[in-house]
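User: I'm putting together a small comparison set for a docking exercise, and I want a reference complex before I start. The sequence is below, and the ligand is PBG. Could you produce the 3D structure with the ligand included, as structure tokens?
Assistant: Of course. I'll restate your input first, then give the structure tokens for the complex.
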Amino acid sequence: MLIRNRRVRQNEAIRSLVRETIVSPNDFLVPLFVVEGKGVKEEITSMPNYYRYSLDLLAAEVKELWTLGLKAVLLFVKVPDNLKDNSGAEALNPDGLMQRAIKTVKDACPQMLVMTDVAMDPYSKFGHDGIVGDGEIINDDTNSVLAEMSLSHAKAGADFVAPSDMMDGRIFEIRSLLEDEGFHNTGIMSYSAKYASAFYGPFRDALDSAPVDLKNIPKDKKTYQMDPANRAEAIKETLQDIEEGADIVMVKPGLCYLDIVRDIKEAVNIPVAVYQVSGEYAMLKAASEKGWLDHDSVMMEQIISIKRAGATMIASYFAKDVVRIIS
Ligand code: PBG
């Protein structure tokens, strides 16, 4: 036998020499959920050990992330019911929760990269990522709101805006308004290939943002998010977002879509983010609580697989857990 593959697997020293994929704190975006109030740190039921923070505790959390080497956060807000409508008005409030959250993070930790979720669903009384019209989610009017929302986040100090809605043409609208208003250096991370996934369930619990029952609109997001059965349009969506001015593109969810990650990695020449979503987190937490899976080993295997598939960066609820293990 001339070829013995096991020679390079004999011990940890040789394995670590030949290892192709190394995970580091630089790989992560940390999603953070923000709520009104003071001293609030509430665990999300379907996301064990993951919390919503009020602004005062958000500051402390962000400082801790920085000391762990985690240098980018992705902010989401839980909007009180009485501020939800069908127009996203509260999203444009210069003193809204998101705008204050951005300032809070920058005050607590000026070097922390702040990315913000741009989407209407947390502000929508219908739980949709667009303005609900008669039998449809209205695309172009929603784009104007998303662009204004992005501008508002940029003014509050966001480094990157991250539109997660999947309306057509929104990257162009956002980029154009940011340029017109002088925010040349505010980046756009586009959720470009975002699938209509059932793995978002726990996130919708976290923000209380699930679509509601409506007469002539389905209680799902399939008219704007992509069909999990499709591959070619993921590339089309992504190339289009790049033409419209996206700086970073994203595939979401992660694990079930690693073929898409690889396709896109090979098709584009800009960074590719992958979102390991709430349901992926919940699944592992539940199985490990039952003693059916080893939490840390499975977590690391998943993260390594996402990076191996082609992710430049990973938005993950496991970021802190991973960094504790690798440092
Ligand atoms: C909505 C949005 C969702 C997520 C991020 N932004 C849910 C959805 O599309 O309904 C999901 C993230 C996760 O599940 O972790 N704009």
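The CA atoms of residues 29 and 203 lie 16 Å apart. The longest helix spans residues 139-156.
User: Thanks, that's exactly what I needed.
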